[in-house]
Task: structure prediction
Amino acid sequence: MKKTAIFLITILSLVSCKKEKETQMEEEVTVETPSEIQPINDDILESAVIYEANIRQYSEAGTFDEFTKDIPQLRDLGVKIIWLMPINPISETKRKATGGDFAYKIEDEAERAKMLGSYYAVSDYTKVNPEFGTIEDFRELVKTAHDNGIYVILDWVPNHTGWDHVWITDHPEYYVKNDKGEITDPLNPDGTSKGWGDVAQLDYTNMDMQNKMIEDMMYWVKEEKVDGFRCDHIEPTPVDFWQRAIAKLRAERNVFMLGENDDPKFMKGSDLFEMEYGWKFHHLMKDITKGHKPVREFDSLISYINTAYEKDDIIMNFVTNHDENSWNGIVTDRYGDASESVLALSYAIPGMPLIYSGQEYDLSHQLKFFEKDQIPKTKGKVWPVLEKLGKLKNTNPALHGGKNPADYERINSGNEKVLTFKRTKDGNELIYIGNFSNEKLEINLAQEGIYTDYMSNSEVDANSKIELEPWAYKLLVK
Result:
């Protein structure tokens, strides 16, 4: 009996030790799953930088995977939102080629194969372009962004589809037709073509089409966990569609909505767009840097924004984007020696600054739009500037530009060629000074206190004379 008891005790002890060891092993191999990113909110928008990702041209491979590898370093530029240019499949029918004509007209087969078409000629709203990878690759991109505290919004094309879209055959009633009953490409008010022959115009009087459009947008929010949309060419689409669509999307997830437009009617109330393009800023600074308009016109711009928009409307400020780069030239073509001054200005004024793929790498050529190209991937002059500006934008409340922006006050420098203003919030101050001339100037701000010249990390007495080199700028913080 005693031997039996000892044997049983020994067996129980061994079993207990084995279970304890297994439990320890299970604890050792347990991998904590990263928590889902919090929904995008007003606090994040105050200090955000947005990055426009051109997946096709971002890398030699032109894939989701290659871009995903670089997402962690975008945090160094202060990026909190990634806007992906359209990721959907592109129609083969009437595919556009370099030069603006249709690819099918190119006789040389190898040359014709190079023509990948416009990202904005979508053939399926709920699929990914195989040129970029698989849906699993896309999901890894979104996960990596979320793990790095960055939100992802998709470029959505609501105005038209490519000619291969299933709706063309299954639902021709979704499209605008001419007098002959033929589906048309987008037309001007006078009935002439806009020149976008690779796409077919959707008919927003058809409520079934509107409902299907919302359903397809919902797929990306609900199933793929995207954080919002940049919506292409929204002007022809009705405001009431967006009121319905955005309300339904936000009932599922708090999405961020950017509209390609500069009309305040698309931003009224809580169920419309939160941000629109700063086209007026972009064009005005081109005119000022080229000497076509005086610096004082900047005051008119600020006055217009304050009058036309509501306080919680956000303007996206940019020095370049995919359209400007491909069709109108590189940054220095527009701003010349004032390029960095305008870049800093886009961060300093109320709103959200944009970085376009390649801008951070001193992109010095116009990227091809309908075929494969590639941005440079060597960090030069612009990367460290964006890094400093991004840190300032992320951390200094004086640069808040979202729904509760920092105050803006114009300062008279005594020189009509110099733009000076102050931003203040929660006891933080920033003064922007920009010399928009080819002359070396000397100004006196007549502001009390010692500031830090942020870019050079030197002290500046704001009540003493300040020298400015031609086209130079200063960001003074206190």
About this structure: Residues 26 and 242 are 50 Å apart (CA to CA). The first strand starts at residue 49 and ends at 53. The two ends are 86 Å apart (CA to CA). Residues 1-35 have pLDDT under 50 and may be disordered.
